[in-house]
Amino acid sequence: MSTWIALAIVAIGSYLFRLAPLIVLERFTIPRTIESALTYAGPAAITALTVSAVLHGDVTGSVGASAAATAALAVAGLLALWRRPFLVAVGAGLALYALLDIALL
User: Fold this and answer.
1) Cα separation, 92 vs 90, whole angstroms
2) How many CB atoms lie within 10 A of CB 71?
3) Residue 93 · residue 76 · CB < 8 Å
4) Which pLDDT score is estimated for 14?
5) How many Cβ atoms from other residues are within 10 Å of residue 26's Cβ?
6) Dihedral sign of CA atoms 61, 63, 65, 67 in order
7) Which of 38, 51, 61, 100 is 20 to 30 A off residue 69, Cα-Cα?
8) H or E stretch including 28?
9) Measured between alpha carbons, how far is 77 from 45 in angstroms, rounded to an integer?
10) Pairwise CA distance, residues 102 & 23, whole Å
11) What are the mean pLDDT values of the chain's consecutive 10-residue runs (105 residues total)?
C-alpha cells in the first residue's frame, strides 16, 4: 500500500512541477530576446544529445553504428542548415541511420 501512496505523491508532484511555470509565467511578460532564444532550445537540446552520442559511440562500441550516426548527423545538420523543416531534417537523418545501420552491421 505504501508503494501506491509514494506513486501518488510523485505523480502529484510531477503534475504540479509541470503546471507551475504556466501559472507563474502567466503574470509576467517574457522579453522578446528571451522568447526568440527559447525557439531554438528544443533543436539545441536534441543536437547536444545527438553529438554526445556520436562522439562517445554506442554502447556496443560498434564502428558501423558510429559511422552511421556520424553520417546521419551530417545529413540532418545540412538539412537544418538549408532551413528545411525540423521534422524533415530529423526524419532524413533517422532514415539514413537506419539504412546504414542495417548495411554496416
Assistant:
1) 6
2) 17
3) yes
4) 94
5) 7
6) positive
7) 38
8) none
9) 14
10) 47
11) 90 92 82 88 82 66 69 88 89 91 78
Residue type, 65: A
2, burial (CB in 10 Å: exposed 0-12, middle 13-18, buried 19+): exposed
Read off the DSSP letter of residue 60. T
**Which residue has 558501423 as its cell numbers?**
64
Alpha helices in the chain (DSSP H): 2-24, 32-38, 41-56, 63-81, 86-104
Residue carrying the nine cell digits 545527438: 50
- What are the angstrom distances between the C-alpha of 62 and each of 48, 51, 65, 72, 105? 21, 17, 5, 16, 8
Q: Which pLDDT value is given to residue 16?
A: 92
Q: Which three cell numbers stand for residue 55?
A: 562522439
What is the per-residue pLDDT for 66? 74
pTM: 0.48
